[in-house]
């Protein structure tokens, strides 16, 4: 009797383990439930993509994790997620690590966006050069009077979304040329908190993804969030109205705006399941049209170039 009971327990445990493993991998390109990661900068965009995808494929459930770039890549390396949407490709060491685990991830460009600098509506100093941004970020410029003689705004308060975010990495790598950021810079938690802080703080500058600055009420994509002012940035050492650009979609597409970056889907989905199906949708005509409407630049769809006449 004891012998039969032991056999029953072993069979039960084996069946339970097999079923648990099967449940983990029972998704298809259009059905099932998965978690995936996305840089918090792209939350407004990803929410729209997920909503439309799930509206078409009723048996699919996508559970996005919005987090900073560092933690998302770590989740991917640990095989906790099969998809991460971020602003960089894997490093050579990260790619080699996954290959050592017999994984061969894909890096798929889905769009281009930009880093935006925002200021309070009461601040009229809305034009700046990359050179001056670098000096602010590294602590060489600390007051508005140093930047704009005669300004009475006092100390510059520069705020980011998160110390481990893609915006911080971009600022260090692409604006500061690898030099460390000033220790006096402040970090919030999310892009929306940065916008909220800047809208209430006249002497502040916020650094966020361009995906967050659009005016939701404007379907043309030619205006920005009305609670803040978006700065025009010049690649020249001296910025003026003639050589400075705001991160409008056309200026990102043409690379006139100097702080552009690409968005990648890092896909580690050897079974070609729901993660693969979702990214195929994002890069399809319908998915790219969603990106187009958010004000950033889709990877595979043409962008209509519109001249923007505004008083900077």
Overall description:
The structure is a single chain. This protein is α/β, with parallel strands linked by helices and 312 residues long. The chain folds into 2 domains: 28-112 and 262-298, Periplasmic binding protein-like II (D-Maltodextrin-Binding Protein, domain 2); 113-260, Periplasmic binding protein-like II (D-Maltodextrin-Binding Protein, domain 2), CATH 3.40.190. Helices cover 35% and strands 21% of the residues. It contains 11 helices and 13 strands. Strands 1, 2, 3, 4, 6, 7, 8, 9, 12 and 13 form a 10-stranded mixed sheet that branches. Strand 6 (157-160), helix 7 (166-175) and strand 7 (186-187) form a beta-alpha-beta unit. It is elongated, with a radius of gyration of 23 Å. Residues 2-23 have low confidence and may be disordered.
What is shown here, in short?
The protein has 312 residues and is α/β, with parallel strands linked by helices. The protein is built from 11 helices and 13 strands. The protein folds into 2 domains: 28-112 and 262-298, D-Maltodextrin-Binding Protein, domain 2 (3-Layer(aba) Sandwich), CATH 3.40.190; 113-260, 3-Layer(aba) Sandwich (D-Maltodextrin-Binding Protein, domain 2).
Q: Biggest sheet: strands, sense, closure?
A: 10 strands, mixed
DSSP helical segment count: 11
User: Can you count the beta strands?
Assistant: 13
Helicity range: 25-40%
Overall 3D shape: elongated
Q: How far apart are the first and last residues' alpha carbons, in Å?
A: 87 Å
- The tally of structural domains comes to 2
CATH superfamily of the largest domain: Periplasmic binding protein-like II
The CATH topology of the largest domain turns out to be D-Maltodextrin-Binding Protein, domain 2
CATH architecture of the largest domain: 3-Layer(aba) Sandwich
Radius of gyration: 23 Å
Percent of residues in β-strands: 15-25%
Order of helices and strands: HEHEHEHEEHHEHEHEEEEHEHHE
Helical/strand content category: alpha/beta
């Amino acid at each position: 009797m004891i012998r039969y009971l032991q056999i029953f327990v072993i069979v039960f445990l084996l069946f339970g383990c097999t079923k648990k493993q099967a449940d983990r991998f029972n998704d298809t390109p259009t059905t099932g439930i998965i978690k995936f990661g996305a840089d918090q900068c792209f939350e407004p965009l990803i929410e729209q993509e997920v909503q439309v995808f799930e509206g078409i494929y009723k048996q699919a459930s996508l559970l996005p994790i919005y987090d900073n770039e560092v933690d998302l890549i770590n989740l991917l390396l640990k095989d906790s997620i099969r998809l991460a949407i971020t602003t960089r490709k894997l490093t050579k060491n990260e790619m080699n690590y996954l290959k050592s685990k017999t994984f061969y991830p894909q890096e798929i460009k889905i769009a281009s966006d930009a880093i935006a600098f925002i200021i309070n509506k009461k601040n009229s100093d809305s034009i700046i050069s990359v050179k001056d941004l670098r000096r602010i970020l590294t602590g060489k410029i600390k007051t508005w009077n140093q930047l704009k003689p005669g300004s009475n705004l006092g100390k510059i308060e520069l705020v980011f979304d998160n110390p481990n975010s893609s915006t911080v990495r971009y600022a260090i790598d692409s604006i500061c040329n690898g030099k460390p950021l000033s220790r006096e810079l402040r970090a919030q938690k999310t892009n929306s908190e940065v916008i909220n802080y800047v809208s209430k703080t006249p002497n502040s500058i916020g650094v966020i993804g361009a995906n967050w600055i659009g005016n939701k009420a404007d379907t043309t994509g030619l205006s920005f969030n009305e609670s803040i002012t978006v700065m025009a940035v010049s690649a020249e050492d001296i910025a003026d109205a003639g050589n400075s650009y705001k991160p409008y979609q056309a200026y990102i597409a043409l690379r006139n705006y100097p702080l552009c970056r690409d968005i990648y889907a890092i896909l580690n989905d050897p079974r070609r399941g729901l993660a693969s199906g979702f990214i195929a949708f994002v890069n399809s005509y319908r998915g790219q049209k969603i990106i187009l409407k958010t004000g950033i630049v889709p990877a595979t769809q043409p962008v209509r170039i519109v001249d923007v006449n505004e008083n900077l």
